[in-house]
Amino acid sequence: MKHLLYSITEPVVCAKCADEFAAGGTGSHTLQSYIRVDVGFSTRGMQVWCQRHAVNVVHIDFEDARPNADFRCLERKVN
Length: 79
Ligand SMILES: [Zn+2]
Hints:
The chain has one domain. The protein has 2 helices and 3 strands, in the order ααβββ. It has helices at 15-23, 31-34, and strands spanning 37-41, 45-50, 55-61.
């Protein structure tokens, strides 16, 4: 179940947001806090959409397959 904890190795980011953040003056301390995206299913697969620029970040076409998806929320125990 460890895969349900944070395991992102390559973040998906909007190129326009990344360029603006790199240029400075966004007022955000991290690119992660600057980016605002919607993530969801489409009729073809899954899409990441940049709210700030109203552009597609990535659309993953499932090509009519149904990949396994796990929506359970796991929280790391704090002792
Ligand atoms: Zn953007």
